[in-house]
Amino acid sequence: CQVMGENGKPATLIMGCYGIGVSRVVAAAIEQNYDERGILWPDALAPFQIALVPMKYETEAVREATDKLYAELTAAGYEVLLDDRDKKTSPGVKFADMELIGIPHRIVISDRGLADGTLEYKHRRDTQP
Predict the structure, then answer these.
(1) What are phi and psi of 99, to 5 degrees?
(2) What is the pTM of this model?
(3) What distance in Å separates the CA atoms of residue 2 and residue 38, rounded to the nearest whole number?
(4) Using one digit for the tens of pLDDT, what is the confidence trace for 21-56?
(5) Pair 53, 108: CB distance under 8 Å
(6) What are the φ/ψ torsions at residue 40 (nearest 5 degrees)?
(7) Helices assigned H by DSSP within the chain
(8) CB–CB of 57/84 below 8 Å?
(9) Going by C-beta distance under 8 Å and a sequence separation of 6 or more, which residues neighbour residue 90?
(10) How many C-beta neighbours within 10 Å does residue 46 have?
(11) What is the distance between the alpha carbons of residues 35 and 58, in angstroms, rounded to a whole number?
């Protein structure tokens, strides 16, 4: 960029920005924390700490257990993303989306797990649940 200088001749402006802003911190975090499946957010920077992924949310038992767990986790101060998409969305798509987004902790609620008294937990950095 050139402007007219005090002496009447064109002068080139030189400027720069060297601040550390939010967007640069986020970009640096993603650059250092990712894999072939997506972002690996550190807990402190994650937009959500926990993803709740119910299987067949439309069933009463799964919906009640999921909603109760969601309420308990949010009351405890966690940022929780509830993936309550309709039954047309396959489990594989839901899991892949949660990995792409990079939410550190994933909890799966299913009829089978509830019958066994368990939930499925997976940390984003784990390769197996």
Answers:
(1) -70, -40
(2) 0.78
(3) 42
(4) 788 888 899 999 999 999 999 888 899 999 999 999
(5) yes
(6) -120, 80
(7) 22-32, 60-75, 91-101, 111-116
(8) yes
(9) none
(10) 21
(11) 33
